[in-house]
Structure formats: C-alpha cells, structure tokens
Amino acid sequence: MKKKVLALIMAGTMALSMAACGNTQSQDTPKEPEKQETVQTEGTEAGGATDISGITADSFKPSKDFNVRVPFAAGGSADTIARIIGQGLQETYGKSVIVNNLTGANGAIAAADLDSAKSDATELMVGGIAMFTLAPLFNKDINLNIDDYQFVSGLVLEDLILYVNPSNSGIEDWDGLVEYAADNRIVFGSNAPGGATHLLATMLFGEAGLDAEAVTSDGSGKDLLAVASGNVVCAVAPASVGAQYVEDGSLVPIAVFSEENYTGYEGYDVPTVQSLGYDIVFHTCNFIMTKADVAPEDVAAIHQAILDYSETEEFKDLAKNANYIPYLEDGETVKQIILDASDLCKEAYDKYYAQ
Question: Residue span of the signal peptide, if any (predicted)?
Fold first, then answer.
C-alpha cells in the first residue's frame, strides 16, 4: 500500500499554484514548522473546555481507514498535497488513506459528503478559503457555516501579487500604473467574478479610483500569460505562479496583498498594498478540516502526526518534488485566517458587487 500511495503522489506532482488567507509567514522561504512535543488546544464539550494538553500523535487510535475528500481535480496541487499528508497518516497509524476527489460548487459537494459521514477524526476534507469567504457571497445556494467544522491543520498559505509587463506598457511600479490610468482604462486579467483575484483587483482599483475592467480566464497562469503577451495591462496571481515570469524578466511584481513586503524573488522587495494606502490583505489558503463534534483530542493528535511527519526526509523529498511549501499551523490559527478574510470579502462584495 505504501508503494501504491507513493506512486500516486509522484504521478500527481506538479508546480504548486493553489488559489484561494492571511498571515505573515509568506516570505521567500517560509519557516519549517517546529516539531512540537505536545499540542495545546481547547475544545468544547458538555462540561466546558476540554484539556488536551500533552496530546501526541499516538494519543489517537483510529478504528478504520481515513477518508480524505478533495474538492479539486485529481493530479492537481491540492490532490498531490492531500496524498503527501495521507502518506504520513498511513505510516503513523497503519491505516489506509483513501483520497476521494469530489469536485464542484466550490467545495460544497465535498462538504456535504463530509456532513453525511459519522463524526470521526478519520473523516476529513481538504478545504479552500473560498468555500467560506467568496462562494457564499456569489452563490446563495452555498450555505456553509464555519462553526459546523473543526480545522485540523493548515496546508498552504501563499501571497497574491499584482504583476505588470514594462516592455509592453512602460509600467514598472504602482505609480506608473496610476499614471497610465490617468489617460487609459486598466484592463486586467483575473478569474471570473466570485474568484479571489477578481475581487482583489476590483477592490484595489476601486479604492484607488482607477477605471478598470477584467478579462477573465479559468486560471492564473493564463492571466499572467495575457500580461506577458500584452493582451492585458496587469493581473493578480499567486506568487508561485508568477515566479517563472519574474525570473525570465517577462513580468515585474509591483504590489503584494500581505502584511509584509514580499522578498521571495531575487532582486525584488515588493511593497504591500497597505503601504500604498489601501488596507487589503488576503492570501490563498488551504487546510484540512473535519466535523465540529469530532473529539478535539483526536484532532490535536492528527495535527501532531502531520507535524511529526513534516520533519521526516520522506516528507521533505515529496514536498520538494511537488514544489510544495507547507504551512502547518493549528486549526485555531486557520479559522482566524478564514474569519479575517471573510470580513474583507464581505466589505468588497457589498461595495463593488451587490448592486
């Protein structure tokens, strides 16, 4: 079984460009999570707070195989990461890890499948920030309540950056874009309305009072290709997607939607949108979650198992091959990231979309 899972992982390995949360660990080389001897978390039960200090990976004794729902296509980055994490759970607990790709409705289909399962820590799902922030705003049929779920661990946290092409537009920085906009409409590449890059660009240009319109596509790679070819003036995309364009000199990063400057590209110190005068902070974010009524001590044990596995050479090799930079913060940290992003998305939706 181990060889089979490893084969699936390597077959699905690809460059990480997971779309769709906010924290400061988004520099060029994020810190590897420190190995923890215990996990300090609070859960709630009939008698009040549950003391789960001293929890280790071995504190959880699963009675059945793990079922991990992935609301993204097989072979994609989310699927690859789920299989890497699944390999660690399999080795720790001696149970098979079954990855089910249940795509559609921004994760609502996979969430419904999780909801229908018996509450157990082996019943898991890989989620994206959009399912709790953007999807409910743009699709009223999606009604996911964050309090119905418990977050096990973060998986990915990545910066979103605004890129331009100086060779086509003459724009090299934010001031240059503003100057360009004095005489021209800004045409930007993004995903469709309801996506993170469309919302961030709409909010930024709206707050700056710049006339702009979107040319939409189904992927950030296509958006950046449109900038590089001169079909659009700029685009917002995850830092990992823009890396190849910055390295070959095709594109220049001019602003990052983060709390700190982005220094992940050699020779660049990309300023924050906040430093330009616009309080817009948003990161792509993916995580592992389960049902809210699962025993907190079991959730804490699984998180510790993931942290322990992240220290192994096997994990590091698999992550390197997948261009995966892990973000393995605890569930409470992940939940706060989602809540903060929800406030920003609601503000942008009410101002620029709910007309």
Answer: 1-19
